[in-house]
Write a structure and sequence with these properties.
single chain; mainly alpha
Length: 117
Amino acid sequence: MTAVVIVLSILLILEFSFAPVNLISGRNAPLFTQFTGITSRSAMLAVAAIDALGALLVAVGLFAPKVSITGAVLLTALCAWYLVMMVRHGHFGSGMVGFLLFGSWSAGLLWAQLARR
């Protein structure tokens, strides 16, 4: 189970560490708007902060499993929010596949951490 936690944590840390950089720089702003329908720069920065916080919690969780559980819950909720927003805006492309994948990683990490307890 420890190997699963480590692999999923690393994948999530990588994804949710780079995502905020791309949102803050504006590189992913068109995709964010397309996926969510939100054009507000403030909303993009708020989501970027949530991404970064989730990555940080998962990273700290490699040494403190309870923190990892919090990070996994946060990232699972974020992925679910993205999926709901994509459905609401009729976007059923590769972004949906991506957030289903990332959400499954975070849900898997949550399950693995809870199973270790």
